[in-house]
Specification:
There is one protein chain. With 181 residues, the chain is mainly β. It is 8% helix and 52% strand. The protein has one helix and 13 strands. The strands form three sheets. Strands 5-7-12-9-10 form a five-stranded mixed sheet, with no helix packed on it. A four-stranded antiparallel sheet has the order 1-2-3-4, with helices on one face. β2 and β3 form a beta hairpin. The longest helix has 14 residues. It starts with 8 loop residues before the first helix and ends with a strand.
Amino acid sequence: MPALADISDEANACIDELTSRFGHVGGEVLGQEFSEAAIMVRLRDGNGVMYECIVWSGPEVADLRRVGDEGAVSADTVSGEQRVKFAAGESGMATSGTLQSGTSVRYILGASDGQFLNVDVGSRGGALDYKIFNPDGSMLLDLISSEKPYRGQLWQSGDHIVEVVNAGAQPVTFDIGVGID
């Protein structure tokens, strides 16, 4: 692992963006590629999820997205409800799964009024949507495409639910990151 002084400003900008979306999940910088227009930084978070981050000069993050690593073993099929637990000292988590056609999975996490919730769902090989429910069952965020990350302040305390939905005809593998700050 390089010393902090050896990490480029671009890599630091990507790390900051990852932290703002998912909290402190740890990880490492895997490499950088330079072009005339931008720099691409490859990252792996503490849960093993890979990212590519495109940075313009400044440094300004233009895009941060999850990527699958070639030859990776298929993610486990998920369904039902999954309780989100953060590792000690961390405020975010990321995991992968495969969602069968016509099914959904609900990620349940406790959070407090006034905190900010960050959700990013990246699908591989198909389209997915997600929605977020407040503890009282009301809708915090109506169904949107997994291409759009969410960041918003919460206005209720208790268990919030992020439901990922596969309305397509094929199973879809996905990554999800959830953070609270």
